[in-house]
Write a structure and sequence with these properties.
The protein has 6 helices and 11 strands. The chain is α+β, with helices and mostly antiparallel strands. α3 (about 80-90) packs across α5 (about 130-150).
């Protein structure tokens, strides 16, 4: 522990470092548990780990700097893993209107950028510019991901089930993953053909002309989102 100029007892840098990386580990575990048990519980754990972890980074940014391959010391992005996980999960959810999530990202970036300015004079901080850029990026990730997580993972209302014909199907790939998509005609007031993300089993079971069941969810905070599955026989 250390004492500030005002006499306030503060936790030392080593303690904050352990807490920050511990929260990063907790957030990673929450992501894995969310795969087994989707829903609000582990989503909430991930969100708390992301927010509290970044609050600790802003409190003592020098505690999380590391040296890359003998170069200058930079903020270690691993401490922001829960925020990044929250964002990447959010962009896989099929939310109709991204206006509110994008606004959340802008607010998150602005808040973290302003908060980071309080730590620029911390002794031992080697790369203040990198620190500010990374906290703004992580703030945007939390802002976007939190809005989508609250809307999707806390949505307990029954969805509307629509049976729609499959117009076409296609696959997109990246270095580490394969994504399966179905094209369906406009539904529920949409103006154009929609592309739905589906799992591999659903994709392989359907051909153009078959029907797929589209589940339109209302969203806990009013942002409609969709999923798709095979229709019951």
């Amino acid at each position: 522990m250390s004492v500030s100029e005002t006499g306030q007892v503060l936790p030392d840098v080593g303690t904050l470092r352990w807490i920050g990386y511990g929260l990063a580990g907790l957030g990673t575990a929450a992501v894995l548990m969310r795969l087994v048990q989707p829903g609000p519980l582990w989503s909430g754990v991930l969100l708390v780990a992301a927010v509290v972890g970044l609050a600790i980074v802003v409190r003592a940014p020098e505690a999380f700097e590391t040296r890359y391959r003998g170069g200058a010391r930079r903020l270690n992005p691993l401490v922001g893993a829960p925020a990044l996980f929250l964002f990447f999960i959010a962009i896989t959810d099929q939310v109709d209107d991204l206006t509110l999530p994008v606004a959340g990202a802008a607010v998150g970036a602005a808040v973290l950028l302003m908060a980071s300015m309080r730590g620029l004079d911390r002794p031992g901080l080697s790369s203040p510019l990198t620190y500010q850029i990374m906290t703004a990026v992580l703030g945007a990730a939390i802002g976007y991901g939190a809005v989508v997580a609250l809307d999707v993972d806390y949505d307990g209302s029954p969805p509307a089930v629509l049976s729609e014909p499959v117009l076409a199907k296609y696959v997109t790939t990246s270095r580490s993953s394969v994504h399966y998509h179905l094209r369906v005609p406009p539904f529920a007031g949409r103006q154009g053909v929609s592309s739905l993300d589906v799992d591999g089993d659903t994709y392989r079971s359907l051909r153009p002309g078959d029907r797929v069941c589209v589940l339109e969810h209302h969203g806990a905070i009013g942002l409609p989102w969709v999923t798709a599955r095979l229709c019951a026989a």
